C-alpha cells in the first residue's frame, strides 16, 4: 500500500484535445484531497470515478481545460497542496482543428510483463519522434497468465469482490513498473481491450458478452460475429479513424503498430510505416 503522499498508480494522461487534457490516478486515501497543477494553466480538482458510497478502487480523474492548442505542458499531482512523489509528467495539447500540419501517433499491443526492454525502447522512440498520442490496442496485460488464473478460479467459486481485487492488483503490478509509469505519465494514452485483458480467446463466443452483442444490432449471436465485434476495437484502422476525426484535417498521418497480421493497414488508410523500435520480436514503430 502506498503512503499518504504517494500515488498507488499513475499518473496516466488520457484523452487530450486542443483545449483540454485528462489525468488519471489511483490513491490510498480520499481522491478529494488531490488536485492537478498544470504549469501556466492553474489547478484542477480530481473527481472520483466511482459511484457515491464506499470506495473500492479510489481512482480519480482531473480535467484540465482552457489550455492553449499545440502546447507542451508540465503538470504535478498535489495532495492537500503538496507535491506527490512520482506525481509529475507532461502532455502536449492537440493542434487547432483547422491545422494542416503533420500528424503522427504510435500504436502498441500485447504487453507481456516478462519481456524486457520494450518499454524503455518505446520511451526513447516517443522522445525522438514526438508522436501526438499512444494507442494501446488490446492485451494491456495477460490476466490469464502468471499467478492465479482469475477466470479458472471462477469455477472454484471465487467471489466477485476477490476476483475484482485480484484483477486490479495485476494492473498495479504491470503499470507500477518505472519504465511503464514514465511512458503513461507523459503522452496522451487511449486504450481498448482484447481477449487477454480477460482471458485467452475471449470474444470468440456470443456468451462472452451479451451486452456487447446487444449493443450491436447487426451482430448475430454466434461465435463468429461476437469474435468479430470484440476484435474490431483492437484494430488500429478502426481506432485511428475514430480518433483522427477529432484531429486536424491532414493526409500526412504516420502510425506505428505491432507486427500482427490483424493490424496491417488497408491501402486507403494512407498510412506510412517507419521501423522496428525494439527488434524483430518487438513493436513496430
TrEMBL record:
Pfam families, sorted: PhoD (PF09423)
Superkingdom of origin: Bacteria
Name assigned to this protein: PhoD-like phosphatase metallophosphatase domain-containing protein
Regions crossing the membrane: none
Region (Disordered), start-end ranges: 203-227
Species of provenance: Sandarakinorhabdus glacialis
InterPro entries noted in UniProt: Metallo-depent_PP-like, PhoD-like_MPP, PhoD-like_sf
Phylogenetic classification of the source organism: Bacteria, Pseudomonadati, Pseudomonadota, Alphaproteobacteria, Sphingomonadales
Gene3D superfamilies: PhoD-like phosphatase (3.60.21.70)
Domain PhoD-like phosphatase metallophosphatase: 105-210
Amino acid at each position: 500500500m502506498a503512503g499518504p503522499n504517494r500515488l498507488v498508480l499513475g499518473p496516466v494522461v488520457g484523452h487530450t484535445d486542443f483545449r483540454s487534457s485528462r489525468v488519471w490516478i489511483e490513491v490510498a486515501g480520499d481522491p478529494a484531497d488531490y488536485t492537478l497543477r498544470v504549469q501556466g494553466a492553474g489547478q484542477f480538482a480530481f473527481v472520483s470515478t466511482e459511484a457515491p458510497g464506499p470506495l473500492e478502487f479510489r481512482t480519480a480523474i482531473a480535467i484540465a481545460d482552457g489550455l492553449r492548442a499545440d502546447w507542451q505542458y508540465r503538470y504535478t499531482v498535489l495532495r492537500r497542496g503538496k507535491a506527490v512523489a512520482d506525481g509529475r509528467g507532461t502532455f502536449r495539447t492537440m493542434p487547432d482543428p483547422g491545422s494542416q500540419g503533420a500528424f503522427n501517433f504510435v500504436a502498441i499491443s500485447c504487453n507481456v510483463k516478462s519481456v524486457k526492454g520494450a518499454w524503455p525502447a518505446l520511451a526513447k522512440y516517443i522522445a525522438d519522434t514526438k508522436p501526438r498520442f499512444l494507442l494501446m490496442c488490446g492485451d494491456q496485460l495477460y490476466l490469464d497468465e502468471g499467478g492465479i488464473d482469475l477466470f479458472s478460479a471462477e469455477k472454484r467459486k471465487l467471489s466477485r469482490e476477490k476476483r475484482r481485487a485480484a484483477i486490479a492488483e495485476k494492473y498495479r503490478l504491470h503499470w507500477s513498473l518505472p519504465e511503464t509509469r514514465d511512458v503513461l505519465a507523459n503522452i496522451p494514452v487511449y486504450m481498448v481491450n482484447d481477449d487477454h485483458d480477460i482471458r485467452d480467446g475471449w470474444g470468440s463466443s456470443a456468451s462472452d458478452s451479451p451486452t456487447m452483442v446487444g449493443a450491436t444490432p447487426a451482430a448475430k449471436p454466434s461465435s463468429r460475429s461476437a469474435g468479430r465485434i470484440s476484435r474490431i476495437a483492437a484494430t488500429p484502422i478502426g481506432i485511428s479513424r475514430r480518433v483522427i476525426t477529432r484531429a486536424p484535417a491532414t493526409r500526412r498521418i504516420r502510425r506505428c503498430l505491432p507486427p500482427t497480421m490483424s493490424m496491417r493497414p488497408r491501402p486507403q488508410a494512407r498510412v506510412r510505416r517507419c521501423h522496428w523500435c525494439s527488434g524483430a520480436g518487438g513493436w513496430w514503430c
